[in-house]
Amino acid sequence: MKNKHLVSISDFSKEEYIKILDSAEDFEKQPVQDIATGKVVATLFFEPSTRTRLSFESAANRMGAKVIGFSDASSSSTSKGESLADTIKTVCCYADLIVMRHPLEGAARLAGEVSSVPIINAGDGANQHPTQCMLDLYSIRKTQNTLDNLHIALVGDLKYGRTVHSLVEAMCNFNATFHLISPESLKLPGAVKMHIKEKGLNYYQYTEIQEAIDKVDILYMTRVQRERFLDIQDYERVKNAYILEQSMLKNSKPNLKVLHPLPRVNEINTNVDNTRQAYYFQQAQNGVYVRQALIAAILGLK
Ligand code: CP
Predict the structure, then answer these.
(1) What is the 3-class SS of 211-268, one letter each residue?
(2) pLDDT in tens, 49-103
(3) Distance from residue 112's CA to the centre of ligand 1 (Å)
(4) pLDDT computed for residue 302 by the predictor
(5) Which residues contact 244 (CB under 8 A, 6 or more apart)?
(6) Which CATH architecture describes the domain 131-284?
(7) Ligand 1: nearest atom to the Cα of 53
């Protein structure tokens, strides 16, 4: 994994996922490991973020690395018309690793093509969010004691939800069965469904959470991605399509965990937060350990 870009979840093999998850377990036991002293990590966020940026920065700090970057594109020279390629070529002169979020699909791939240091995609438009996927895998393995043969319900914006696209691709390596719950207009894209079919796995599509909730081990809720809609009226029609309530969990499997990449808007009522099924804030915490493991692997420190 040393010096590899992480642009899409398929850039890493199943064996590499497992290595990262095992390393993250080690970081969870001992989060402060001064193994990146002298290294500089750049976080370039052209789109808003709380968890991804801050957990990467927390991860780097806990390993002794220094962090540079920006959280608002308007404070960078792209606002003066500089191209993304020139920005990346410049930041390569200042950092050993670049973590980048960008609103355009394919931006991380382009960055990888011009960069002399590894690029980690922290989300590119509606395309991929591979590091979120790694922490989702970590959270699933931790709560289910396995990644194999699980039933996963994915709920909400399956069209624009980049975390969903990455997670489906990754879980295809572990014989998952997918329960896809969305409004008609936000169904999982055909290319991602094709991935499931190519692996000979099954998926089922529903429009109501109740149709699947009692069958699954993981209920992966997502926010409707307002920022991806071209017509705000289309967003208004589906924004309240799913609201998970505590009462809806009463017949769920004993091992069910509710995950959400966050941020949430209203798709999980706060009355779910204190149930034994709720796991989304621990999931966000797991992001630090997984990102420590990724930084260590890609910089060749561990
Ligand atoms: N899950 C996630 O990507 O959250 P942020 O947008 O806050 O980084």
Answers:
(1) HCHHHCCEEEECCCCHHHCCCHHHHHHHCCCCCECHHHHCCCCCCCEEECCCCCCCCE
(2) 999 999 999 999 999 999 999 999 999 999 999 999 999 999 999 999 999 999 9
(3) 21
(4) 86
(5) 155, 209, 219, 221, 258, 267, 268, 269, 272
(6) 3-Layer(aba) Sandwich (3.40)
(7) 8
Q: Which residues partner with 151 through β-bridges?
A: 177
Give the integer Cα–Cα distance in Å for 290 and 288.
6
Report helix, strand or coil for 47: coil
Q: Tell me the pairing of strands 218-221 and 66-70.
A: unpaired
Å from CA of 51 to ligand 1 middle:
5
**pTM score, two decimals?**
0.96
Give 155-213 pLDDT, tens digit per residue: 999 999 999 999 999 999 999 999 999 999 999 999 999 999 999 999 999 999 999 99
Question: Out of 1.20.272.10, 3.30.70.1710, 3.30.300.30, 3.40.50.1370, which CATH number does the structure's domain 31-128 have?
Answer: 3.40.50.1370
Q: Whose CA is nearest to atom 5 of ligand 1?
A: 49
Decide: helix, strand or coil at residue 58: helix
Tokens for 292, please give them.
Answer: 């420590």
Ligand 1 neighbours by CB, cut-off 6 Å: 49-52, 123, 132, 261-263
